[in-house]
Amino acid sequence: GENVEQHPSTLSVQEGDSAVIKCTYSDSASNYFPWYKQELGKRPQLIIDIRSNVGEKKDQRIAVTLNKTAKHFSLHITETQPEDSAVYFCAANLSNTGNQFYFGTGTSLTVIP
Amino acid sequence: EPEVTQTPSHQVTQMGQEVILRCVPISNHLYFYWYRQILGQKVEFLVSFYNNEISEKSEIFDDQFSVERPDGSNFTLKIRSTKLEDSAMYFCASSEWQGRNYGYTFGSGTRLTVV
Predict the structure, then answer these.
(1) A99–B41: do the CB atoms touch at under 8 Å?
(2) In this predicted model, what pLDDT tens digit does every residue of A84-109 receive, in sequence order?
(3) Residue B74 and which of A52, A110, B63, B108 are 20 to 30 A apart at CA?
(4) Cβ–Cβ pairs < 8 A, chains A and B
């Protein structure tokens, strides 16, 4: 099955700096890659996603890039703010397997004011 | 914005007891899922459900687990004989379409503590 790896596991940045979280996946058939933000004790919430026919997608301070050849995708947060502090999970979807999502192990992001 | 609702938010049960976790998916969604998250770990897939039957399940979803959609709105996860290692946050999710790559909407979770 699919294996999603995520790095780093923890990340601290100064407010205003950028944060980058990277994920790799193993199955080249995966074609949808969402990112979820999970605040302490709360549900994962979709913040951005990218499909395999797109190389980059941006939404205000958040962007995601996908390299299908290398099978990796990254989340970029610019001008970080304290409220960006959370655990971020990447996921990969192999759409012919019942739409199951395979999650990465998470990155705990701390934005220092 | 439509929400997936889960009850209870926290359940404490004794080892060996049966528990039922309840979920109300978004009304026009067709695909339903249960995931679990052991404290501090990643979100793990348990089962997906479509058209009143299981479409996929993971190795975690053994004979102790079952799912049901008893009426048009509820979606339940039953654990027949809980074990200590079943302690986790259980998330229900729903999605509108399969194969169209729509992201899930997660419920707020039920924290299950087995003592």
Answers:
(1) no
(2) 999 999 999 876 555 678 899 999 99
(3) B63
(4) 57
